[in-house]
């Protein structure tokens, strides 16, 4: 049993005595993609951020590669974990190339190697490095920026990738392009390192498409940990509610045409 | 006019140089104090208000009074140039301090968050992210401070520190407008030149799309 990330009875209680995470235990298999679903304020992002110690849980232990994150040097830990957020957070004064190579630069990798690697990554995320390397973030579209964000997160070959609503700000068409790109990237990278992905989203479709497991959170509690197929068929109230909320429009339309089609029919 | 210039030309040049030296020394000193303090305040934000308020109060002291206050102090009061530089430094603190602080504080939090999460060390975050992104702000503060100091430095002549103010004071005393102008025009030109040069740098340092 190889758990790449393990949450052991994690709680996080704020100074105002609000429990943002309550006794979460979860084990994430190496090389898998896990989506954390839940409504805003359910603690998804908080849980994600305990992995790279952007948040220190008040009790419990987080382990990455069988080591407590507390026992590892925090800078080394963070450099070994890719991190992508919705706002991208690209450095506006760095070129695309330098942005992609940020972690390599801060770890002191020589420039030629850095440039080679960031160009390789840019091409892998679907940006022609010859065309984009010298540009600045403000010269890119939202989707392109997020591609650079992913290139940056993967440049140092992290074994763990944390993504906080990475595609949440993108239009649906760009979003599905990005999802395909990510899947392909993970597959192609699988040969060199098995990247474990933990992704926060509230898009059920995205979770179903990308994830091997779906975790549902509700007010700081972990309420479900299921495969996508199980998730869709679950009779558990809060899971069923989430699924129903997502397919409301679809059902409505289908009902008005007098036919109810399920996802399985289409597949 | 020609006669005036040949009589005072050398003096004007000398005093302009002195003026410049006083201002430059004060700006250097003020930067060395205010930029690190501004950076520190972004880490200890509860001190930001009190300290910026102190700098603010310094700024409101009338310049003649400031020179007067410093006069009786040991060491400082011994040399007129020391008094002048100390007073000018005090006036330069606020714009530099405030702009350093707000410049860093106004950086998009998402950028700083990512810098942390990607494992940049504190020093790397400061020198690779925060200072470059705040650079145009900080330079704008330096520019304001410099222009202010060039102006206030003319008063330094009142305590015998020299500078172009000397011509102005002498002109006033002897009711000679030519002497007043001989001090005032170069002082104004110095201020304009400093403003233009620093403005140029400021635009250069502005990050793309900022």
From TrEMBL, chain A:
<dbReference type="InterPro" id="IPR050093">
    <property type="entry name" value="ABC_SmlMolc_Importer"/>
</dbReference>
<dbReference type="InterPro" id="IPR017871">
    <property type="entry name" value="ABC_transporter-like_CS"/>
</dbReference>
<keyword id="KW-0547">Nucleotide-binding</keyword>
<keyword id="KW-0067">ATP-binding</keyword>
<dbReference type="GO" id="GO:0005524">
    <property type="term" value="F:ATP binding"/>
</dbReference>
<dbReference type="InterPro" id="IPR003439">
    <property type="entry name" value="ABC_transporter-like_ATP-bd"/>
</dbReference>
<feature type="domain" description="ABC transporter">
    <location>
        <begin position="5"/>
        <end position="244"/>
    </location>
</feature>
<keyword id="KW-0813">Transport</keyword>
<protein>
    <submittedName>
        <fullName>ATP-binding cassette domain-containing protein</fullName>
    </submittedName>
</protein>
<dbReference type="Pfam" id="PF00005">
    <property type="entry name" value="ABC_tran"/>
</dbReference>
<dbReference type="InterPro" id="IPR003593">
    <property type="entry name" value="AAA+_ATPase"/>
</dbReference>
<dbReference type="InterPro" id="IPR027417">
    <property type="entry name" value="P-loop_NTPase"/>
</dbReference>
UniProtKB/TrEMBL annotation, chain B:
<feature type="transmembrane region" description="Helical">
    <location>
        <begin position="20"/>
        <end position="41"/>
    </location>
</feature>
<protein>
    <submittedName>
        <fullName>ABC transporter permease</fullName>
    </submittedName>
</protein>
<feature type="transmembrane region" description="Helical">
    <location>
        <begin position="133"/>
        <end position="159"/>
    </location>
</feature>
<feature type="transmembrane region" description="Helical">
    <location>
        <begin position="79"/>
        <end position="97"/>
    </location>
</feature>
<dbReference type="InterPro" id="IPR051204">
    <property type="entry name" value="ABC_transp_perm/SBD"/>
</dbReference>
<keyword id="KW-0472">Membrane</keyword>
<dbReference type="Pfam" id="PF00528">
    <property type="entry name" value="BPD_transp_1"/>
</dbReference>
<keyword id="KW-0813">Transport</keyword>
<dbReference type="InterPro" id="IPR035906">
    <property type="entry name" value="MetI-like_sf"/>
</dbReference>
<dbReference type="InterPro" id="IPR000515">
    <property type="entry name" value="MetI-like"/>
</dbReference>
<feature type="domain" description="ABC transmembrane type-1">
    <location>
        <begin position="16"/>
        <end position="198"/>
    </location>
</feature>
<keyword id="KW-1133">Transmembrane helix</keyword>
<comment type="similarity">
    <text>Belongs to the binding-protein-dependent transport system permease family.</text>
</comment>
<keyword id="KW-0812">Transmembrane</keyword>
<feature type="transmembrane region" description="Helical">
    <location>
        <begin position="179"/>
        <end position="201"/>
    </location>
</feature>
<feature type="transmembrane region" description="Helical">
    <location>
        <begin position="53"/>
        <end position="73"/>
    </location>
</feature>
